[in-house]
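Quick one before lunch.
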Amino acid sequence: MNIKTSVITLAALAIATLGFTTAYASDPSPKELQRLVDDAYAKYKGLQEGENANYIPILTKTPSDLFGVVIVTRDGKMYTAGDVDYKFSIQSVSKPFTAALVMKQQGVDSLDDKIGVEPTGLPFNSKIALELYTEKRSVNPMVNAGAIAAVSLVKANSEAERWNLVLQNIEDFAGAKLTVLEDVYKSEYDTAYGNRGIANLLYNYGRLYSDPEEALRVYTRQCAIGVSAKDLGVMGATLANLGVNPLTKKTVMPAKDVPELLAIMATAGFYDESGEWMYTAGLPAKTGVGGGIVAVVPGRFAIAAFSPRLNEAGNSVRSLNAIRDIAGELGVGVFGANPAE
Ligand code: DON
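Model of the 6-diazenyl-5-OXO-L-norleucine complex:
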């Protein structure tokens, strides 16, 4: 995407975000929201397409048939179906939330300057992106390079402080105490040769802002935080609620930063499938190789889902279908209604 296209995309998102309150004045009834999650769950629970992530060895052991679907509204009402309490590793769904922490600490311009906001059109773990985008290198905080850079940018005097800030921030978004799935952390850190390469390359180019191994450890721990589909729903609902957690009422990020964060999720949240996702679902969202996805209907609610089988781009097949159907049926795409499949 060139600069002009990016600017147009962001402007359209901003207009859509500002316009939504008048376009969709009333929320669907609780009965309707419950019906939508039940229907999406029933429709996709038999879908066998895709495979668990296997480059993190332990993720192959997650029962592949787990599936949960959740809607959480900006006032904290929750509609659920399936395995919505099962704790899985958050993986890349953590990325926008740590980007939010960097924005809060250092401002949105600094995130753009020091990481970048351009979609790569490349896989989440791309190394070639670092060589193609020679100015920004890490490119955007949704891909591994940008997310490792984001962790390294968090202002902290020690690794322990860096980790505590990262964890506390994600807990604030979830409105719950969270724990690291230590077996996932170990499995990923023991095999993190690709991400270590990325961290070292960034450091070499002056685009990593802490010791590379420290950034890698904190990033890998962040990805191993255990969350449920309900937790993801609350995290998304906090963004829908302009940075205020609907359960705890805590302001987790400034409302003024939410549009920028949603813009990055919209343009890069599905990696090299982000165009396809926005074309068919029309919502800012973030996926993770643990099987979680959260999508945000700005100002209104979040739709989250979890199921371990992934497509080629590393996005959960059942989750993306469930969320896209719900968004389509409700007609809540930020550019206007997208048809449900
Ligand atoms: O760094 C990694 O490869 C993983 N911890 C996270 C990747 C991920 O979740 C990509 N998402 N779909």
